[in-house]
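Hi R.,

Here's the chain you asked about this morning:
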Amino acid sequence: MPIPTFQAYRLHGGADGAPPEGRFDTLSEDDLSAGNTLIKVAYAGLNYKDALAQAGRGNVVRQYPRIGGIDLSGTVVHSTDPALAPGQEVVVHGFGIGVDCDGGYAEYARVPHDWVLPLPAGITLRDAAVLGAAGFTAALSLHWMEHCGLTPDQGEVLVTGATGGVAGIAIDILSQRGYRVCAMSGKPDAADYLRSLGAAEVMAPPDLSAPIKPLMSARWAGVIDSVGGPLLAHALASVRPDGVVAAFGNAGGAELPTSVIPFILRGVKLLGINANSPMPLRRALWQKLATDYRPQRLDLAARVIQPQDLPQALAAMLERGSTGRSVVRFS
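And here is the predicted structure, written out as tokens:
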């Protein structure tokens, strides 16, 4: 049975290099990107990448019109894959949704069946969206750090860009795993919020105007970094011998002004985190998010908004006007 027409927040290419125009359009199923699985969207997350796409920055979206939203949770309407039954609760993130094909900012989404991950028991549709790509990235970072030997008894873990979506979930997971977490943020008024997530200490970013020494006083057993640039270089110089650093962001710049000294004199391990992981790893980590890595304070880090508030909320992300995770509710 055909679905009724529905609302979607689509980006339309701007003329003569102008930023794209975002607006709500009335669409039918045939207007969606190709795929063999139709999902009724319950929630979709707001991510920094979505904000960049709306502003036309970073060449994130290259073909218009495009429905934004790089992650979503919802229920299956129909699928050619018999393993995906109508009504089944699922989550989708990555694989280019919201960028190279239509994403979650709509009442319905259509994707290939092998991009769809059934929700593990115990995770609601709302929690799945609050976690989304951000929660998966936090879990992936800790997964590889612990794979490289990180344990709570080795010392403190620094989380940079601490008010961001990934960082907030990382603080929550780390603290409930027994790690002592230091949250680094340039927002002084966020200290109580970060402690409520589980941070034992909150500190301001260092002064990065002076040259960064190759090695500084060794403090951190691990670092989860969403900033990159000089701040990541500063953190690397402060990691303890055999410490582990997971890096996944470049809000502070793509250049890394460091040297090989932390790696060859202290054995520091720098892990690049790419959340577009193969499906077997996704399944394993979503199961961990439902069990061993389950955050305990998602309600503190989450805000639910209505579709009409989406454009303003995305714009606020680029102005450092957001904290934690926001999700838009469609049904």
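One quick note: The radius of gyration is 20 Å.

Cheers,
M.
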